């Protein structure tokens, strides 16, 4: 079990810094512009919150729909959705048994790690696209590295990860996590 409060708060804070004029900006995430990526975050938060509560239904039984952009009130609504996501996964029962999201059943522990990965990696995507600073705690990265490594062995996985991007062995842990999800840690000219 890992507490997602910081990860969700960090991503919510990034969303508050995105300007309207940036919503059509390119992102490192597949073929999504920043507005579509933000909409995806706004949709995945309640879906994975429902997965934590084992509240199976429309939120957990269908793949996320990608629209053109976020809801009109996204600046107010999405941070609260991220907060609710973190709260749902703070319950130890969320990490036990089986769960579901996107119409896919999985061990709940795996679902929690997928939720954390979505929040952290898409937070990175938002930061890169909007030119914002982004730093992730060591504890989160230590939890994510084996998770994304296990998927990278099978990548590309349609709808999840592209093939890993090769990086030097001595790059920071965040860069390794990002590269294992098929993203270039240097996307957008970012230099550490």
From TrEMBL:
One of the record's GO molecular function terms: metal ion binding
InterPro entries: CHP03086 (IPR017520), DinB/YfiT-like (IPR034660), Maleyloyr_isom (IPR017517), MDMPI_metal-binding (IPR024344)
Signal peptide: none
Superkingdom of the organism of origin: Bacteria
Domain Mycothiol-dependent maleylpyruvate isomerase metal-binding residue range list: 6-127
A Pfam short name: MDMPI_N
Name of the featured protein: Mycothiol-dependent maleylpyruvate isomerase metal-binding domain-containing protein
Organism for this UniProt entry: Mycolicibacterium vaccae ATCC 25954
């Amino acid at each position: 079990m890992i507490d997602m409060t910081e990860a969700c708060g960090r991503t919510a804070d990034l969303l508050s810094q995105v300007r309207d004029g940036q919503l059509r900006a390119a992102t490192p995430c597949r073929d999504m512009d920043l507005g579509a990526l933000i909409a995806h975050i706004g949709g995945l938060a309640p879906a994975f919150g429902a997965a934590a509560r084992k509240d199976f239904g429309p939120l957990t039984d269908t793949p996320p729909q990608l629209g053109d952009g976020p809801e009109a009130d996204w600046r107010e609504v999405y941070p609260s959705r991220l907060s609710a996501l973190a709260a749902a996964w703070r319950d130890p029962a969320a990490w036990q048994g089986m769960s579901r999201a996107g119409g896919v059943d999985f061990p709940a522990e795996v679902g929690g790690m997928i939720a954390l990965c979505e929040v952290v990696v898409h937070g990175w995507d938002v930061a890169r696209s909007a030119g914002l600073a982004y730093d992730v705690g060591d504890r989160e990265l230590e939890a994510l590295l084996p998770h994304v490594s296990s998927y990278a062995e099978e990548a590309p996985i349609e709808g999840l990860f592209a093939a890993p991007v090769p990086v030097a062995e001595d790059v920071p842990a965040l860069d390794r996590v990002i590269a294992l999800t098929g993203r270039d840690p240097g996307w957008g000219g970012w230099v550490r």
